[in-house]
Amino acid sequence: MDNTSQILARSAELFAGKRVLLVNPVADGLTAELPADWHVWTWDYSVWLGLNGRLDTARLTFSHLCPDVADIDAVVLIMPKALERAEYALAQMAPLLAAGCPLYLTGEKKGGVSRAEKLLQPYGDQCEKLDSARHCQLWRAVRNATPAPFALGDWQRSVTLELVDQTIELVSLPGVFSHGRLDEGSELLLDEPGKLPAGRVLDFGCGAGVLATALARRNPAARFELVDVDALALYCARQTLLRNAVEAEVYPSDGLSDVHGRFAAVVSNPPFHTGIRHDTSIAERFFERVTRNLVPGGELRIVANGFLKYPGLIEAHIGPCNVLRENTRFKVYSAVAPG
Ligand SMILES: C[S@@+](CC[C@H](N)C(=O)[O-])C[C@H]1O[C@@H](n2cnc3c(N)ncnc32)[C@H](O)[C@@H]1O
């Protein structure tokens, strides 16, 4: 089991026989091993895929919103990567609890769990560290006065981006990549004027949907599909498309797990670090598999930090890799699938 699950398992008596809302867990055996009436909220589609079948569907929610579970005895948040995502989650979890019920927060020390007191303070009293083991901490606060009901609009940020050829309204939520601004790498990819082919075009790791929105307007013969592993990103991408009057399909996928058929082009600013450690494994797996989703002659166009060793991987799995554009930090690469 993951370290965060192990620290919860060490305090199994806190949850035994209780109705517990568990938020942002790892897809491991925790809910099977600990006897409690678990209800899980995840925004990570890979976790949903991992727990689907192990937990009853009524007890497992993949969404940008917390499920409205009644009569909860306790809530447990596993510290998300982004602090602001923890605040977003707690603001939805706390109103589900009756006063006097416990809110737990656990996570790795390196992942910011030591901010627990500050995070729990708006919702609970008697905040205390219950355990510290396996590089993790477990904190508890007791819910105090009734918190304000959650309103998504209070957390949603909308910004106007001025591109050379168009204005885009971008909708974003806490912890969504480049929250409330345009990433420098994505901007460089959008500076590239080269047309995309007609037909299906995939935006892999769409985030708030900025790439597909701008490129769909420039390439009216392209039919965009947007995928991301993060439910908040998918919600934001749908909102961004809507506000900019762009029609496209948006659906969850862990890597290319739910991407079927072949595309005339795939565009991406691929994820290169997840969590605390730098990690390019998702991008590497994407390069390995993406040719299966490209028509012969179909284009892969990505932007990445210049220091990442992607050209070799692209050449190994797709074809000759051209640099379309670069600045001091980023490069836009293009490769064409063998045909
Ligand atoms: C660098 S961001 C790019 C976001 C957006 N395209 C942009 O340019 O602003 C990478 C995106 O990949 C998503 N991602 C991370 N792991 C993923 C996975 N396994 N499958 C699909 N998407 C993933 C992240 O949630 C994030 O939104």
From TrEMBL:
Coiled-coil intervals, chain numbering: none
Key words, A-Z: Cytoplasm, Methyltransferase, rRNA processing, S-adenosyl-L-methionine, Transferase
Main location: cytoplasm
InterPro entries: Mtase_sm_N, rRNA_ssu_MeTfrase_C, RsmC/RlmG, SAM-dependent_MTases_sf, Small_mtfrase_dom
Residue span(s) of domain Methyltransferase small N-terminal: 5-157
EC number from the UniProt entry: 2.1.1.172
Record's subcellular location: Cytoplasm
Oligomer and partners: Monomer.
Family assignment from sequence similarity: Belongs to the methyltransferase superfamily. RsmC family.
Protein's UniProt name: Ribosomal RNA small subunit methyltransferase C
Annotated organism of origin: Halopseudomonas xinjiangensis
